[in-house]
From TrEMBL:
Residues 2-1237 form the YhdP central domain. This is TIGR02099 family protein.
Length: 1255
């Protein structure tokens, strides 16, 4: 820039002012010289100057010159710099300084364009700067009393950075100079998106000609808001700053060459990258005060209330710290002070900080965490050697990751004070931990509480550590320790440590075995000691650690002793654990556990020892010796849960026992080869009860000894009692096979009592038996045999047996294929059975009796019976009745469902009669039975439901009943219940009588059996009825019925009374009641009413019995009656026009009500009296009144015309006197089978009314 031109211009102004002073009278006319002034100014500056107006005034005693609308034109004639107004007040100091000095220089609304070209040179208002700086202008500016710039606008264009123009508006500048003192203030408004108003104030003491270190002063900058990243086009930051905004205030001090800089920050949404290869650090906020101070040989960095929050949640709480560094020649001294350091935050921020590789590696390796408070540290370096150091701090939550031999820690709290001469560490922590990888393979130790006081001193001879007091409590142990340790740099050091352990968990012992204990032994401790607690523990560790574990007592001592309580030892994989142990334990170079009490599966142990003689030999051995007494059942479980179970092929699986015994056991277990464990033992049974297999009874009074090794099982003489008789068992094994032989005698009564099988309870006696069991590969082949000699059976048919006869029984169990069991049962040549079990479930089975087919069904259980004759009546005395179990319930045996029962026999004897060619198939369906019945007498299907009182429904295509069957059923015991039913019989026969189609429906309701519908229908007639049978202690039957005969003659013929009546219609209806079941009439209580009505029929000649009674009124010999001859009264029969009467029943006696009247064309018969239905007797009066009609008289006239005419006239006039003349009465008594008839004289009763009611 041509600053000389500006100086000339200023000098010219001064000259003008002097002229004005000298020529005071000319001031009012100064505007007349505007052109001359423009020309002089243009020449002085080198650019054309335009002045809009010039005025001169007096300001007090100082002349003042005012220029308005000033423009400096560039080479193109365009304004490069404009001034709205310039006001210059001349100071009288100019006279003795011989250069212009202004009391005030003021610029109003200047607009200044500043440009940096691509060559780096600046131009202001179109004037390019020169390469040489001219200090004269700067000196002149600092000589002016006051300089003011108001409302300026500066346009900054940087072509070198290719940045967009930057416009600063509303720029205000104040500069006050007074000798060496210079005070200034500057404010400007940048674009709103970049920042708020910028405020800068300061004061400097010094001269431009003085050295820099002689300057002093203060600087203050305030910026309420700025988009830091937005300034990047015009400003180069020392770090990458892609994003950020906020406010700052800055104070600077300079004095005697020492500088201080203090900054208050309030930034947010900040992204900063502190190195090219470092990840960006995203901050939500950054606040606090940063300060720095620099002197010639020292510097200080400090922060107050510095806090930050990253976008991923890392928070630095307000922190104060100060770092001092001073260097003098080769000596360096440093100090650090901090009120709080969060190591975890610093470690997490380390990835973003410009640290050297070693520091970054250490932070990553040790991962420090926790808080350091009241930190004071100092150090001194002489060259590169550390000559002194000191550290004092409090800490909480302190943690560091273990690395190699360096211990780790977590959650520590306390304080430390150390120097190069020694120090002291105090720990008072709650939940915390230590990690000692150099000592233990499982290095992590947790504490609920940890207190320690440790001091140490350092010298050229080594480090001496005094463990004054250590108290610890944690999940694994509680105790105290004290001792000392000396490290000289040669070997691992010398230790003298003693500890008392108040409590320790047994399952943590393995964790405290040092590296010197081999991995196999330590692994056994981990798996073997799995519970319990220790108390009264002692630890002694004394000697040079180079000689650990001190097998030679002269070199040192290592011993841990404790008393165990409720310990659990899992001494070998697959063997039952020893629990509840009370023992003395000791650990040195081996382990010894001597148990005085404990249990194995509930059995008490005594004198048990578990020993590892030496932890550090090539083939460590675990030796277990001991004895146990307790329940035999627990011993059986012990075998089944041990490897012995495989050896004996799980021979004892499923066995149960009552009683006690004794086990002696020895185990030799190579820890590196546990599969080669050797075992020796035996068990003594003492009056035990032993249950071998589900479904069999306990064997009582079991005594004997069972010998076991890891390869065999043997027993030569185990005795006991089972099924009411003695037995003996032998056991042996060879080649992976176990053989069991059992022999004994069984009481059939005990067998029946245990199993509760039907039929067996009818047998008596005892019989020998034998069982052979071969067990191999967890499969047992079983054969049980007996000839049943000594057993007596009263059962019918093929199961009848005497005590001296033999009936071989054989039961075989085998496994023909993997996952399949087969059970074959043979009872002589009487019955056979075969049942299969697949994959643990019964799948199919068959039982065949007699000649029945024994082939297996596809699924389920089928029972087949095929015999020449089945006497069901005989079996009824042995089979369970309804009271013992409702029939029709589907049978199951451990999942094998009964699916079908098949009966086939030529003759089935039931209810006193034989049924021919019987085939019955019964199939259970849930709680129901589906029954298919086919015999010579019946063909149909039934469904039986056994719930509640039962229900039967079905349809017979044909059903043939006989009187013998009915008689047999009547003679059976009286039933006390009937099921509900819905039956249809398409073709019902009774003996040889075709009765027609039957429909029957009944149900049980509140203790009553309701007959809702009874309908028996054929082409000749129909019987219908309904009723109720009330069950209980006082049974009662109520029955209503109606019989309709469409052709009485045919209906009677169908019922077996051939030619008794010809034609005729009839109706018999009534209501009967009696005490007792529906199936059996109780005549003494029988009561009721009957009504009979018939018409248009004729009685035929009848056989004796009831027919004879009817024959009394069968008056078919009317010509003989005309001759008063009644000898043929019972010979032929009687035609009738109607029969009508009402009857009552009381106590089993049926009586007529107003007589039973039969009206016929030839006779009228009236029957009165009663009949005993139970005794089948009668006492009847029968009145026979012949009908002597005109036809009869006419017939008589053929013989004697006079007599006939007279009779006709008399009969007509006298109202049938002939009828009364020929009427007779008969007294009928006796039985129905042989009635007795006697004449009782003439019927003198009044004649009945005629049809019209006339007498």
């Amino acid at each position: 820039m041509r600053f000389a031109g500006w100086a000339a211009f200023a000098g010219w102004l001064l000259f003008v002012a002097l002229v004005l002073v000298l020529r005071f009278a000319m001031l009012p006319a100064i505007a007349d010289y505007r052109d001359e002034i423009e020309t002089a100014a243009s020449k002085a500056i080198g650019q054309e100057v335009r002045i809009g107006r010039i005025e001169a005034y007096w300001r007090g005693l100082n002349p003042e010159l005012v220029l308005d609308d000033i423009s400096l034109l560039d080479a193109a004639g365009q304004p490069a710099f404009t001034l709205s107004r310039v006001d210059a007040v001349l100071s009288w100091h100019s006279l003795w300084r011989l250069r212009p000095v202004l009391a005030l220089l003021s610029f109003e609304q200047p607009v200044l364009h500043i440009r940096r070209g691509t060559d780096g040179r600046f131009s202001i208002a179109g004037m390019r700067s020169s390469d040489d700086s001219d200090p004269a202008f700067s000196e002149w500016v600092l000589e002016q009393k006051r300089i003011r710039i108001h409302d300026a606008t500066i346009v900054w264009e940087d072509e070198l950075r290719q940045a967009p123009p930057l416009i600063l508006e509303d720029l205000q500048l104040a500069l006050d100079n007074s000798g060496r003192r210079h005070r200034f203030g500057l404010s400007a408004v940048p674009p709103a998106e970049l920042a708020a108003r910028i405020e800068l104030r300061g004061e400097v003491h010094g001269d431009l000609n003085d050295a820099l270190d002689s300057f002093s002063g203060q600087l203050y900058v305030e910026l309420d808001y700025a988009d830091l990243a937005g300034w990047k086009p015009w400003i180069d930051y020392p770090v990458d700053l892609p994003r950020g905004r906020g406010a700052l205030r800055l104070w600077g001090d300079l004095e005697d060459g020492a500088g201080r800089l203090t900054t208050d920050l309030a930034l947010e949404a900040l992204r900063i990258r502190l190195g090219d290869k470092l990840p960006a650090l995203d901050l939500t906020s950054l606040r606090g005060r940063l300060s720095g101070e620099y002197k010639a040989d020292a510097w200080t960095l400090a922060a107050r209330q510095l806090e930050l929050l990253t976008t991923d949640g890392i928070r630095l709480v307000p922190t104060d710290f100060q770092l001092d560094w001073r260097q003098a020649d080769a000596a360096v001294n440093g100090n650090v002070r901090a009120n709080l350091l969060d190591l975890d935050v610093l470690a997490r921020l380390a990835a973003h900080l410009p640290l050297d590789a070693r520091s970054r590696q250490l932070l990553q390796a040790y991962a420090p965490q926790g808080q350091i408070a009241e930190l004071k540290a100092s150090w001194g370096l002489q060259g590169e050697a550390l000559s002194r150091y000191a550290l004092a701090a409090k800490f909480s939550g302190l943690g560091v990751r273990a690395e190699s031999y360096f211990p780790g820690a977590s959650g520590l709290a306390g304080s430390i004070d150390l120097s190069e001469k020694g120090g002291r560490l105090l720990i008072d922590a709650g939940a915390s931990g230590l990690s000692l990888p150099a000592v233990f393979p499982e290095p992590d130790i947790a504490f609920d509480a940890l207190k320690a006081s440790i001091g140490w001193t350092s010298s050229s001879e080594g480090v001496d550590i005094a463990i004054e007091r250590v108290g610890f409590s944690g999940p694994d142990a509680t105790g105290q320790a004290h001792g000392s340790y000396r490290y000289t740099g040669d070997g691992p050091g010398v230790i003298d440590l003693q500890a008392s352990i108040e409590r320790a968990n047994g399952n943590a012992v393995w964790r405290y075995m040092p590296h010197a204990v081999n991995a196999d032994a330590r692994d056994w401790l981990r798996r073997g000691i799995t519970g319990g607690t220790a108390h009264e523990g002692k630890l002694v560790l004394k000697g040079n650690l180079r000689d650990f574990p001190f097998r030679d007592p002269s070199t040192g001592k290592f011993l841990v002793t404790a008393k165990a309580r409720d310990a659990r030892v899992d001494y070998a994989a697959g063997w039952p654990t020893i629990e509840g142990i009370a023992a003395d334990m000791s650990f040195d170079y081996g382990m010894r556990i001597k148990a005085s009490a404990g249990t194995i599966l509930g059995a008490s142990i005594k004198d048990v020892s578990v020993v590892i003689p030496d932890f550090d030999v090539n083939d460590e051995m675990l030796l277990v010796r001991g004895a146990a007494e307790g329940p035999t059942g627990e011993f059986l479980s012990f075998i089944e849960r041990s490897p012995v179970a495989e050896t004996i092929d799980h021979f004892t699986e499923g066995m149960r026992a009552v009683g006690n015994g004794r086990l002696d056991l020895e185990l030799d277990i190579p820890l590196r080869r546990p599969l080669e464990t050797r075992m020796r033992g035996n068990y003594h049974f003492r009056d035990n009860q032993l249950h071998l297999v589900d479904g069999l009874p306990m064997i009582a009074q079991v005594n004997g000894r069972l010998d076991l090794t890891d390869t065999s099982v043997a027993a030569s003489d185990i005795t006991g009692r089972g099924f009411g008789g003695p037995l003996r068992v032998k056991v042996g094994s060879a080649g992976g096979k176990v053989a069991v032989t059992a022999t004994g005698t069984a009481s059939i009564a005990e067998v029946s009592r245990h199993f509760g099988w039907p039929l067996v309870n009818h047998l008596t006696g005892s019989t020998p038996w034998k069982a052979d069991i071969a067990i191999q590969k967890r499969n047992a082949d079983v054969v049980v045999t007996s000839d049943l000699l000594g057993i007596t059976s009263p059962l019918p048919d093929v199961l009848n047996k005497s005590a001296t006869s033999r009936l071989p029984l054989r039961v075989e169990r085998s496994a023909p294929a993997a996952g399949t069991e087969q059970y074959r049962i043979t009872l002589g040549n009487v019955a056979r059975g075969l049942v299969l079990r697949r994959d643990g479930k019964w799948s199919q089975g068959v039982f065949a009796v007699g000649d029945a087919d024994a082939s297996l069904p596809d699924k389920g259980l089928v029972v087949r019976v095929a015999m020449p004759r089945i006497d069901a009546d005989a079996w009824r005395n042995y089979l369970p009745g309804e009271a013992q179990g409702a029939p029709g319930v589907a049978a199951e045996s451990d999942g094998l469902a009964l699916t079908q029962v098949q009966l086939k026999t030529p003759v089935l004897h039931l209810f006193g009669r034989d049924y021919s060619e019987v085939e019955v198939v019964l199939a259970p369906q849930a709680a129901d039975w589906q029954i298919a019945l086919k015999t010579r007498e019946a063909d149909g299907e039934l469904l039986w439901r056994g719930a509640d009182d039962g229900w039967i429904e079905g349809r017979f295509r044909r059903l043939h009943l006989t009187q013998a069957a009915a008689a047999g059923q009547a003679s059976s015991s009286v039933i006390d219940s009937l099921p509900g039913m819905s039956l249809v019989v398409d073709d019902l026969w009774l003996d040889k009588k075709a009765l027609g189609r039957l429909e029957l429906r009944a149900r049980n309701l509140r203790g009553s059996w309701l007959l809702e519908k009874l309908n028996l229908r054929n082409s000749d007639g129909e019987l219908s009825g309904s009723g109720r049978w009330t069950r209980g202690a006082r049974q009662r039957t109520d029955l209503d019925f109606e019989l309709l005969a469409r052709d009485s003659g045919k209906l009677l013929t169908r019922l077996g009374y051939d030619d008794a009546v010809r034609q005729g219609k009839a109706r018999l209806a009534g209501s009967l009641r009696w005490n007792g079941p529906l199936t059996e009439i109780h005549y003494p209580s029988l009561t009721g009413e009957l009504a009979v009505k018939a018409e248009k029929g004729q009685f035929n000649k009848l056989e004796p019995g009831v027919g004879r009674l009817l024959g009394l009124i069968s008056l078919q010999s009317l010509p003989r009656r005309l001759t008063l001859d009644f000898r043929d009264l019972f010979s032929d029969g009687l035609a009738f026009d109607s029969i009508e009467g009402k009857l009552s029943v009381e106590g089993g006696i049926m009586k007529t009500l107003s007589g039973l009247t039969i009206n016929g064309p030839a006779v009228q018969v009236v029957i009165d009296g009663q009949t005993d239905l139970q005794q089948e007797t009668q006492d009847l009066m029968v009145a026979v009144r012949p009908e002597v009609s005109s036809l009869a008289i006419g017939a008589a006239a053929l013989v004697n015309p006079v007599a006939g005419a007279a009779a006709l006239v008399a009969n007509t006039v006298l109202k049938s006197p002939l009828n009364q003349i020929f009427s007779y009465r008969y007294h009928v008594t006796g039985s129905w089978a042989d009635p007795m008839v006697a004449k009782a004289g003439k019927d003198e009763e009044k004649p009945p009314q005629d049809k019209d009611g006339a007498k």
